[in-house]
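Service request form, structural biology core

Requester: graduate student, group of Dr. S.
Request type: structure prediction, single chain
Budget code: on file
Notes: please return the result as structure tokens.

Sequence provided:
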Amino acid sequence: MPRYYFDVQNGDMVCDDRGTECPDLNGVKRHMKELIASLIWNTIQSHRDQLVCRILVRDQNGNVIYMSAVSYNGAWVDFSTRAA
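Core staff response, request fulfilled:
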């Protein structure tokens, strides 16, 4: 089964040196979505209000074959300053 590497850039680039076996390109996209969901969940659980990251997928030859970007921004809104 082919191995793919999911590098995460969230400020710094964290290169995946282990890789993940995926049966096909649909499996790559499925793993990418799980990784994105995990990043967002961890951001929310750590009470941070911002996440901006990019994930690059490399094949066994080191070629980038897919890229995904995600951002999450949360901010309090002060409604008390609105006119009644």
